[in-house]
Amino acid sequence: MKQFAIWEVDGQEYKLKLTTSTICQLEEKFKTNLLNLVDGMPALTTMLTVTHAAMKDWNHGIKYADVQNLFDKYCEAGGSQTDFMADIFIEVYNVSGFFSQALADSMTEKIAEAKEQI
Predict the structure, then answer these.
(1) CA 9 to mean position of chain CA atoms
(2) 78/94 Cα distance (integer angstroms)
(3) Is 84 helix (H, G, I), strand (E, B) or coil?
(4) Which of 48, 78, 85, 108 has the fewest CB atoms within 10 Å around its CB?
(5) Contact indicator for 10, 73 with CB cutoff of 8 Å
(6) What is the pTM of this model?
(7) pLDDT digit string (tens) for 33-87?
């Protein structure tokens, strides 16, 4: 299992992983278990909030506005909201211990198949 999800934007790599305390903070903020957020396509605000939480412990001084700017650059380089969910957001969940390795592998395979159809 990988230790971190990596989001590369504009030639820079950012480490992402949710700690237990961060997961608890997010659950309080959203008033739900974080697994409920991946039922369907989450709002961009939700994905970027979780992404910021996953980045802040590993990328010193990163702010929510920085994450929004990174997402803009990501899209300008050819990324999309769907790509972001499949390649980054779900990977944060994988490395943060939400899914067993077998389930993570199965999800990764299904996401790849879905992306081919888009």
Answers:
(1) 14
(2) 24
(3) helix
(4) 78
(5) yes
(6) 0.87
(7) 998 988 878 899 999 999 999 999 999 999 999 999 999 999 999 999 988 988 8
